[in-house]
Specification:
The protein has one helix and five strands; from the N terminus they run βββββα. The chain is of the alpha+beta class. The two termini are about 15 Å apart. The mean pLDDT is about 75.
Length: about 80
């Protein structure tokens, strides 16, 4: 698997188009994401002013591919 790009963790003050997965439940335990050009940012939906993790779009694509192909299955080493 390709090595990830730089991951940035920061607080986010810019208003963005944050969205939750349609698969998330409604108890508030969700991760939201915002697409900002070539960067995708993630945050805890319960902590809107808390830290944000941002990575480039290619890293997100690689991560999702690894999840959906079973390369990151629970308990796998």
């Amino acid at each position: 698997m390709a090595q990830p790009s730089t991951v940035r963790v920061r607080r986010y003050d810019v208003k963005s188009a944050w969205r939750k997965s349609s698969y998330s439940d409604h108890n508030g335990d969700c991760v939201e994401l915002a697409e900002l050009g070539d960067v995708v940012s993630f945050r805890d939906s319960k902590d809107l002013h808390g830290p944000v993790v941002s990575v480039d779009r290619q890293t997100v694509t690689t991560f999702i591919s690894a999840l959906t192909s079973g390369q990151m299955a629970a308990g796998r080493r």
